[in-house]
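C-alpha coordinates in:
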Protein backbone atom coordinates (compact mmCIF):
# COMPACT_ATOMS: atom_id res chain seq x y z
CA UNK A 1 0.00 0.00 0.00
CA UNK A 2 1.61 3.25 -1.04
CA UNK A 3 -0.17 5.46 1.52
CA UNK A 4 -2.29 4.09 4.38
CA UNK A 5 -2.60 4.11 8.14
CA UNK A 6 -0.35 1.56 9.82
CA UNK A 7 -2.24 -1.64 10.53
CA UNK A 8 -0.06 -3.51 12.97
CA UNK A 9 -1.08 -5.79 15.86
CA UNK A 10 -1.54 -2.80 18.19
CA UNK A 11 -3.92 -1.11 15.77
CA UNK A 12 -5.94 -4.27 15.09
CA UNK A 13 -6.22 -5.05 18.79
CA UNK A 14 -7.28 -1.48 19.67
CA UNK A 15 -9.59 -0.90 16.69
CA UNK A 16 -11.36 -4.24 16.60
CA UNK A 17 -10.84 -6.44 19.65
CA UNK A 18 -11.28 -3.64 22.18
CA UNK A 19 -14.20 -1.92 20.43
CA UNK A 20 -16.95 -1.20 22.97
CA UNK A 21 -19.92 -1.47 20.58
CA UNK A 22 -19.18 -3.87 17.71
CA UNK A 23 -18.01 -7.45 17.37
CA UNK A 24 -15.57 -8.26 14.59
CA UNK A 25 -14.18 -11.39 13.03
CA UNK A 26 -10.65 -11.38 11.62
CA UNK A 27 -9.99 -13.76 8.75
CA UNK A 28 -6.35 -14.31 7.89
CA UNK A 29 -5.54 -15.20 4.32
CA UNK A 30 -2.58 -17.51 3.98
CA UNK A 31 -1.46 -20.43 1.85
CA UNK A 32 -2.68 -23.82 3.07
CA UNK A 33 0.69 -25.06 4.35
CA UNK A 34 2.25 -21.71 5.25
CA UNK A 35 1.66 -19.83 8.50
CA UNK A 36 2.67 -16.49 6.98
CA UNK A 37 -0.30 -14.23 6.33
CA UNK A 38 -0.69 -12.81 2.83
CA UNK A 39 -3.41 -10.50 4.08
CA UNK A 40 -6.57 -10.30 6.11
CA UNK A 41 -10.18 -9.21 6.07
CA UNK A 42 -12.15 -8.01 9.07
CA UNK A 43 -15.91 -8.50 9.07
CA UNK A 44 -18.85 -7.43 11.19
CA UNK A 45 -22.39 -8.69 10.65
CA UNK A 46 -25.58 -6.75 11.27
CA UNK A 47 -28.69 -8.73 10.42
CA UNK A 48 -28.33 -10.17 6.93
CA UNK A 49 -25.58 -7.72 5.96
CA UNK A 50 -21.90 -8.43 6.43
CA UNK A 51 -19.49 -5.53 6.23
CA UNK A 52 -15.93 -6.04 5.13
CA UNK A 53 -14.58 -3.34 7.43
CA UNK A 54 -10.89 -3.72 6.64
CA UNK A 55 -9.10 -5.49 3.83
CA UNK A 56 -5.39 -5.86 3.29
CA UNK A 57 -4.64 -8.24 0.42
CA UNK A 58 -2.39 -8.25 -2.60
CA UNK A 59 -4.69 -7.08 -5.42
CA UNK A 60 -4.24 -10.20 -7.54
CA UNK A 61 -7.67 -11.14 -8.96
CA UNK A 62 -7.21 -14.89 -8.31
CA UNK A 63 -6.22 -14.33 -4.69
CA UNK A 64 -9.12 -11.90 -4.20
CA UNK A 65 -11.53 -14.42 -5.79
CA UNK A 66 -10.29 -17.16 -3.44
CA UNK A 67 -10.67 -14.89 -0.41
CA UNK A 68 -14.17 -13.74 -1.44
CA UNK A 69 -15.39 -17.26 -2.20
CA UNK A 70 -14.21 -18.54 1.18
CA UNK A 71 -15.77 -15.57 2.96
CA UNK A 72 -19.03 -15.91 1.03
CA UNK A 73 -19.28 -19.60 1.87
CA UNK A 74 -19.05 -18.91 5.61
CA UNK A 75 -21.23 -15.81 5.53
CA UNK A 76 -24.04 -17.49 3.58
CA UNK A 77 -23.96 -20.47 5.95
CA UNK A 78 -24.38 -17.98 8.81
CA UNK A 79 -27.46 -16.38 7.20
CA UNK A 80 -25.86 -13.40 5.49
CA UNK A 81 -27.30 -12.36 2.13
CA UNK A 82 -25.29 -9.19 1.41
CA UNK A 83 -21.62 -8.18 1.63
CA UNK A 84 -20.61 -4.53 1.48
CA UNK A 85 -17.43 -2.54 1.90
CA UNK A 86 -16.05 0.94 1.22
CA UNK A 87 -12.82 1.30 -0.65
CA UNK A 88 -11.32 4.16 -2.64
CA UNK A 89 -12.07 4.14 -6.36
CA UNK A 90 -9.15 3.51 -8.65
CA UNK A 91 -7.19 1.28 -6.27
CA UNK A 92 -6.02 -2.09 -7.60
CA UNK A 93 -7.79 -3.98 -4.79
CA UNK A 94 -11.05 -2.18 -5.63
CA UNK A 95 -10.72 -3.19 -9.28
CA UNK A 96 -10.00 -6.79 -8.25
CA UNK A 97 -13.09 -6.89 -6.03
CA UNK A 98 -15.24 -5.53 -8.85
CA UNK A 99 -13.73 -8.05 -11.28
CA UNK A 100 -14.92 -10.71 -8.84
CA UNK A 101 -18.54 -9.63 -8.54
CA UNK A 102 -18.62 -6.65 -6.19
CA UNK A 103 -20.73 -3.78 -7.56
CA UNK A 104 -19.85 -0.10 -7.16
CA UNK A 105 -22.37 2.06 -5.35
CA UNK A 106 -22.58 5.33 -3.47
CA UNK A 107 -21.02 5.61 -0.05
CA UNK A 108 -24.10 5.83 2.21
CA UNK A 109 -22.88 8.42 4.71
CA UNK A 110 -21.59 11.01 2.24
CA UNK A 111 -18.04 10.80 3.57
CA UNK A 112 -15.58 12.91 1.61
CA UNK A 113 -11.97 11.96 2.39
CA UNK A 114 -9.98 15.10 3.13
CA UNK A 115 -6.41 15.71 4.22
CA UNK A 116 -4.14 18.59 5.11
CA UNK A 117 -0.73 18.02 3.53
CA UNK A 118 2.02 18.97 5.96
CA UNK A 119 5.01 17.43 4.21
CA UNK A 120 6.39 19.76 1.51
CA UNK A 121 7.35 16.86 -0.77
CA UNK A 122 3.92 15.22 -0.79
CA UNK A 123 1.75 16.27 -3.70
CA UNK A 124 -2.06 16.33 -3.55
CA UNK A 125 -2.52 14.65 -6.95
CA UNK A 126 -0.24 11.75 -5.95
CA UNK A 127 -2.07 11.38 -2.64
CA UNK A 128 -5.46 11.39 -4.37
CA UNK A 129 -4.34 8.45 -6.53
CA UNK A 130 -2.59 6.46 -3.80
CA UNK A 131 -4.41 7.02 -0.50
CA UNK A 132 -5.88 3.71 0.69
CA UNK A 133 -8.64 3.73 3.27
CA UNK A 134 -11.37 1.40 4.46
CA UNK A 135 -14.25 1.46 6.94
CA UNK A 136 -11.59 0.80 9.60
CA UNK A 137 -10.38 4.36 9.14
CA UNK A 138 -13.71 5.67 10.44
CA UNK A 139 -15.59 4.90 13.61
CA UNK A 140 -18.91 4.30 11.87
CA UNK A 141 -18.74 0.51 12.05
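Residues out:
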Amino acid sequence: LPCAAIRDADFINWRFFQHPHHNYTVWAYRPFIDQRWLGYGIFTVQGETARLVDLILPPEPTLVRNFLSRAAHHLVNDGTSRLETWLPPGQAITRSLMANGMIAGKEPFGIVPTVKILHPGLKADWLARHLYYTMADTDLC
